[in-house]
Backbone:
């Protein structure tokens, strides 16, 4: 299995809702990432998990709460979002060993989030 | 913050022509990667070049890296309409806090049949 699976593919939520984005990989990668991408812009790093521990938080507002329950799963919990948080949320994974270099990062297809 | 710039921002060519995209970056890197993204979809890894390499080939792709100028180029030869997509360079800098992949602004490539 060489894929990163993200669910749901589309999500519409109100500003008072609580929702979660899910990401799963079975490639044995020990690093997992959340990126946010606005239209016609490059992806921006939000969080990095290395060996299931949060290693990088790019000063993301607390209304975004990441969770890594095990080495295959990554969640992003959403609460009290704003309309400007509407974006494509991408999950990625990568190996942390030296051979990682040849394979880059594997990205999921993303969750298209709309906050109304 | 983004790593650097890509040029051109948009490129339109005819099928069969070559497409060249350039990328500049600002910090030290372990490697530089190129990704492709079809409209509104996930990113697909195309090719990776390590910081101690100068050129790499993969099929119709050729990547160069000049660490002294902090720049890279991606050449797609004999382009096809199916190559139409956004192309991003991304620098991989392994830090004590973890691995970080930072993207350039991207080039929108249109290949006309």
Residues:
């Amino acid at each position: 299995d060489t894929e990163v699976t993200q669910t749901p593919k589309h999500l519409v939520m109100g500003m008072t809702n609580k929702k979660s984005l899910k990401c799963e990989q079975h490639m044995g990668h020990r690093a997992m990432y959340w990126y946010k991408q606005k239209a016609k812009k490059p992806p921006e790093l939000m969080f990095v998990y290395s060996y299931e521990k949060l290693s990088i938080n790019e000063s993301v507002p607390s209304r975004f709460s990441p969770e890594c329950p095990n080495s295959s799963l990554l969640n992003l919990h959403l609460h009290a979002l704003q309309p400007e948080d509407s974006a494509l949320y991408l999950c990625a994974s990568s190996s942390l060993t030296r051979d990682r270099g040849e394979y880059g990062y594997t990205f999921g297809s993303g969750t298209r989030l709309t906050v109304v | 913050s983004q790593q650097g710039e890509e040029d051109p921002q948009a490129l339109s060519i005819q099928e069969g022509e070559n497409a060249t995209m350039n990328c500049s970056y600002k910090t030290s890197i372990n490697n530089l990667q190129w990704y492709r993204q079809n409209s509104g979809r996930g990113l697909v890894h195309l090719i990776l070049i390590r910081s101690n390499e100068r050129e790499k080939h993969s099929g119709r792709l050729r990547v160069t890296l000049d660490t002294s100028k902090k720049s890279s180029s991606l050449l797609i030869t004999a382009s096809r309409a199916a190559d139409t997509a956004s192309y991003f360079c991304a620098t991989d800098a392994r830090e004590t806090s973890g691995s970080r992949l930072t993207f350039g602004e991207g080039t929108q490539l249109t290949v006309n049949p």
About this structure: Chain B has a mean pLDDT of 91. The radius of gyration of chain B is 14 Å.
